[in-house]
Specification:
Strand order of the largest sheet: 1-3-2-4-5-6-7
Radius of gyration: 31 Å
Oligomer: single chain
Distance between the termini: 86 Å
Number of strands: 17
Helix content: 25-40%
Strand content: 15-25%
């Protein structure tokens, strides 16, 4: 920078630098995006220097910065990005710059407008000698108004005088959106993104589930987008044009994080963070985060730590990771050893240590299962999709009082309680971790010993959320997981829960066809009827 000029000013003559400095003295009309006089003056300078020129103007009509670019474009000066956005939404400045008439508006121009939350970006289209011919004005639109950016084009002699009126109307609407989320941390304001290479209906179901996962993690979903593609992009998961639109809308909604419905490769995650400028999380990472927040016992925390390390290992990008919570990085770097290699070694060492501790706990669990089997008391395990109401039903059957809430993965710990049945018999009920579509392999491995509490059960109560339209797919997901774990041989009883939230008449034929029972875990009569049926099934010859 020379005096107050930014950008590529090296090699300019003193007279050219002086002409650029004079732009600071100009006072544009506030109700026009740009005036004819300023457009002509900036065009003349661009024609003389062979370099594009840009100015930043605030809402009081003051020129805040003057920047110089190359023959095709001028960049918004980094030094001018320190202004904070006004009213929770827009920055309170517009960026006016020259641009060759034959050069189209690019993705970087649109991203600049939305990411920096500029009042507007105004391009002065000039010919080879710097004469201005057209004005193109871009402005961010409030959510729900179609395209994220409105483009208006007019001649230099026909610049309208409604700029402030339109700006105030936009900012008022944008401020309403910002008001809804202003007390929420930026990283907890998430924008959901999904890709489908098949039918749209399952993809929409999965997106709805991703929204529930985000809510269960304490996040607020500000918006979502779904794209149909023939294949997943190996570099960025989504197409470049679609990603551009996602970033525009995410910035408009003031989201701090993109959450993808799928598992991103390390390369995809890095590219997406680079191209979007936002934090990025995939479905696996989101589930790991939920498990991390829910784990309360030492056993559960160990298993979550193991799963996180197994996920983290291939995602190291060379910049290192924070391993302090797990005791990594203390005096372990060798002479000349790269940090990424140190981190990988720390992760491997901690995985070995955690597995050893978990195996010791698993051995104790196995001893407890053996004692249960020797006691000749029947065991009934409650299994099902996450948030189907297993813990609520478990409490109703046993009076245990375990944590139960309308959240995905509210229960991560296996709980065992002995209960007396209506006709005098006894059994042990086991509440288990809920299943989910595409449960991350490292979580399944880490919690395998916990899930294996099911082993030796005399009956599985497969709890189904009857109020969820996706329950047929959820039933298949649970059955598939049970097959993978080797528990398909255990007798199973389908229990359609949340009867109070559905129409009995329409659902009962489906329940009868599947040989299930329809209940509400909150209805004492329903719970007693279920207990009677459980006792009857347990009394049948094995």
């Amino acid at each position: 920078m020379t005096n107050r000029l930014f950008g590529k000013i090296s090699g300019l003559a003193a007279s050219e630098l002086g002409a650029l400095e004079k732009l600071y003295t100009r006072r544009p009309e506030l109700d026009r995006a740009v005036t004819h006089e300023i457009a002509r003056e900036m065009g003349e300078i661009a024609g003389r220097t062979g370099r594009m020129v840009g100015i930043i103007i605030d809402r009081r009509g003051r020129v805040k910065a003057v920047a110089v670019g190359d023959a095709l474009e001028v960049e918004f000066p980094e030094e001018a990005r320190t202004d904070t956005p006004r009213g929770g939404r827009l920055r309170g400045v517009r960026f006016i710059c020259t641009k060759p008439e034959n050069v189209k508006v690019g993705a970087s121009d649109r991203l600049l407008l939305t990411k920096l939350r500029l009042d507007s970006i105004v391009f002065i289209g000039i010919d080879r000698v710097g004469t201005p011919h057209t004005i193109r004005e871009g402005a961010v639109l409030p959510p729900g108004q179609g395209e994220p950016i409105e483009w208006r084009e007019y001649s230099v002699s026909g610049i309208p005088n409604d700029y402030l009126e339109r700006l105030e109307a936009r900012e008022q609407e944008l401020s309403k959106t910002a008001e809804r989320f202003k007390k929420i941390d930026a990283l907890d304001r998430v924008f959901l993104v999904a890709i489908t290479t098949g039918a749209a209906a399952p993809a929409r179901e999965s997106m709805a589930e991703l929204s529930e996962l985000s809510r269960s993690c304490g996040m607020v979903v500000v918006d979502r987008m779904l794209q149909r593609r023939d294949r997943i992009d190996p570099a960025t998961f989504v197409g470049s044009g679609f990603l551009e639109e996602v970033v525009h809308r995410a910035n408009i909604m003031n989201a701090g994080r993109l959450v993808f419905d799928g598992e991103l490769s390390p390369k995809q995650a890095r590219n997406l963070e680079r191209d979007s400028g936002l934090a990025v999380m995939d479905r696996t990472m989101l589930i790991l985060e939920i498990f991390g927040r829910r784990a309360v016992t030492g056993d559960g925390k160990l298993r979550v730590d193991l799963a996180k390390l197994q996920y983290m290992a291939p995602h190291l990008a060379g910049q290192g990771v924070d391993l302090s919570r797990l005791g990594g990085g203390r005096g372990m770097r060798g002479s000349g050893e790269m940090k990424i290699e140190t981190d990988r070694r720390v992760i491997r060492d901690n995985i070995v240590k955690l597995k050893k501790k978990i195996n010791e706990i698993a051995a104790r669990r196995e001893e407890m299962r053996k004692r249960r089997r020797m006691s000749n008391i029947a065991t009934v395990s409650l299994v099902g999709y996450t948030n189907a109401g297993k813990s609520t039903l478990f409490n109703s059957l046993t009076g245990a009082g375990v944590f139960a809430e309308n959240l995905l993965f509210a229960t991560l710990e296996t709980t065992t309680r002995r209960a007396r049945l209506p006709r005098g018999g006894e059994c042990v009920f086991i509440d288990t971790v809920g299943f989910i579509k595409e449960l991350p392999e490292m979580l399944l491995d880490a919690f395998r010993a916990t899930i294996e509490e099911i082993d030796g059960s005399h009956l599985l109560l497969h709890i189904v959320d009857a109020s969820n339209p996706a329950f047929p797919r959820q039933i298949e997901t649970v059955n598939s997981t049970l097959r993978d774990l080797g528990f398909e041989w255990i007798p199973q009883m389908l229990v359609f829960n949340k009867r109070d939230l559905v129409d009995d008449a329409s659902l009962r034929p489906i329940v009868n066809e599947r040989g299930g029972i329809l209940i509400s875990a909150l209805d004492a009569a329903d719970v007693k009827a279920l207990a009677v049926e459980v006792e009857a099934r347990l009394s049948k010859p094995k």
